[in-house]
Amino acid sequence: MYRGIFLGPPGAGKGTQAKKAVAEFGLEHLSPGDILRAEVAAGSSLGKVAKSFMEKGELVTNDVIIGMMKNKISGITKGFILDGFPRTIEQAEALEEIMKILGHKLDSVLNFTVSVEELVFRLSNRLSCPDCKSIFHKYNIPPKKESICDNCGGTLVIRKDDCEEAIKIRMEEYRKKTSPLIEYYEKEGKLININGEGNSSEIYNEVVKALK
Ligand code: ADP
Ligand code: ZN
């Protein structure tokens, strides 16, 4: 039963790859970004707290995220991929504690690397399906019908944080707070680097090799 983390900057393709892998291997996909967007859409108190951070492109505070993820991880009975958690050293330390309490071992951390120029190109032309969470790209992966999700027929949207200003802040947040995790997991001997540029199915082959 695989239990691991997909790490990388916004737009690295972690989510796309994680969705394929969980479907093939029968794992749970835990994305705090998806969970928070659902909370915002539902207008819950958690959503109200998270909304302004997310729209600006800032990380939501550690206390909120850690409590939320502890809850989710504790409820899982199969293997899982954490996609977007941890994103700070404090979150990584909290995860270690959570795993210890549950008696779980962390198998590996897949670190997706992509150049900043490519990340910005991907994010600034991204189209997202709010219904089934599928992701398209205006040029790289255009939907068959403009603005319509191939998968579920939902109306595609541009996420509020996929605007130029928020993208810049997300990149800064990644550099300052998340990128130190590369060294953190390297020291633990858990890190596997995945070249996140190029063909999506080639990247997926690398992911599968790493999960086995
Ligand atoms: P991306 O990786 O494309 O930036 P996500 O969907 O993973 O997008 O996250 C969207 C937003 O949700 C982040 O910009 C942040 O505000 C919030 N978020 C997601 N994961 C975390 C986390 N682990 N810690 C703090 N905030 C988070
Ligand atoms: Zn859809």
Mean model confidence by pLDDT: 96
Tell me the name of the CATH class of the domain at 3-114 and 177-211: Alpha Beta
Q: In whole angstroms, how far apart are the ends? A: 10 Å
Oligomer: single chain
Instruction: Tell me which ligands are bound.
Output: adenosine-5'-diphosphate, zinc ion
According to CATH, the homologous superfamily of the domain at 3-114 and 177-211 is P-loop containing nucleotide triphosphate hydrolases
Number of strands: 7
Task: Describe the global form.
Answer: globular
* Number of helical stretches of at least 4 residues: 9
Main beta sheet strand tally, sense and closure: 5 strands, parallel
CATH architecture of the domain at 3-114 and 177-211: 3-Layer(aba) Sandwich
Structural class: alpha/beta
Query: Poorly predicted ranges (pLDDT <50, ≥5 residues)?
Result: none
The helix/strand order is EHEHHHEHEHEEHHEH
- CATH topology term of the domain at 3-114 and 177-211: Rossmann fold
How do the strands of the widest beta sheet line up side by side? 2-3-1-4-7
DSSP helix fraction:
40-55%
- Radius of gyration, in angstroms, nearest whole number: 16 Å
Beta-strand content bin:
5-15%
